[in-house]
């Protein structure tokens, strides 16, 4: 039987949070609907953060109230603190995600507190989630480099990952926020994390700023990682990671996994159609090479 790989679609959140203008909630809903119909079973749909900092994610509550439901589709949202979690748990969500960083400066710029403070802020989030049996994902940003500090130690990545896991996060997503890493570095970082945490609790999250994302993912697949974040049409970026481009495109990832004989349950043409829908709305060409090839073939 083909080996299964879980893709976590982050386009509606990571993808749209960095757009110069906010995408209307109706368009976000239609995007999520098309992604679910394409076979994506885990979709990060928005975040409960300061609307002054990230106005693009305002309306996430309205979005969740209106999203169509599909069997087995998990809708997740980012929450940085108790305030966000209190709002999120009243809505129909299946997963929360907290986000920390392996770099102190990025933590300060992104969420206005130190790494230690961020983990303290996650405590009430974990309590709320546990009381309602909602699973929590934990992100670690800057795992292969920081836009402000440059090199980030693998020790720091492993340390923050372990602490998130000890708080109760069921999965740790290791984020190359600025798309700076190359395959051997990615592999060394994942192996160091896997030495202390179960490999099936690790996910990888590569931004494709320097075109290394698929190569990095292949290296991490060889190390046994089976959960990968990606973004339709290669949308994405973080406003606190200047110059960072989108995540690896879901279309390109599915195409590669299909070619490797790995099973995802996702229809690449249907994801490309969802990518076409959102790219048209944004008035831009898709960043997915596979989607471009499909469009001309
Ligand atoms: P803070 O420490 O309170 O201070 O917020 P602040 O000055 O940044 O913001 C304060 C304002 O936010 C106050 O409102 C609070 O009420 C409000 P004001 O008095 O100014 O009107 N506030 C909130 N509003 C809505 N929901 C909340 C909430 N909490 C406080 N939950 C905070 C800390 C984290 C909230 C803030 O700094 C923030 O929203 N930052 C944005 C973080 C963000 O969304 N970054 C992008 C996502 S992370 C990412 O992309 C990386 C990832 O993809 C992985 C990777 O690639 O590495 C996950
Ligand atoms: Mg990201």
UniProtKB/TrEMBL annotation:
This protein's pathway: Metabolic intermediate metabolism; (S)-3-hydroxy-3-methylglutaryl-CoA degradation; acetoacetate from (S)-3-hydroxy-3-methylglutaryl-CoA: step 1/1
Q: Which GO terms describe its molecular function?
A: lyase activity
Q: Which UniProt keywords apply?
A: Lyase, Metal-binding
Q: What reactions does this protein catalyze?
A: (3S)-3-hydroxy-3-methylglutaryl-CoA = acetoacetate + acetyl-CoA
> What Gene3D superfamilies would the database entry show?
Aldolase class I (3.20.20.70)
Taking every annotated instance into account, which residue ranges of this chain make up the domain Pyruvate carboxyltransferase? 5-272
Q: Which SUPFAM superfamilies match?
A: Aldolase
**Recorded E.C. number(s)?**
4.1.3.4
Spans through the membrane: none
Keyword match Lyase? yes
What InterPro entries does the entry give? Aldolase_TIM, HMG_CoA_lyase_AS, HMGL, PYR_CT
Q: What class of enzyme is it?
A: lyase
UniProt key word Coiled coil: no
Which protein family is it in?
Belongs to the HMG-CoA lyase family.
The name of this protein is hydroxymethylglutaryl-CoA lyase
Q: Which organism is it from?
A: Neoaquamicrobium sediminum
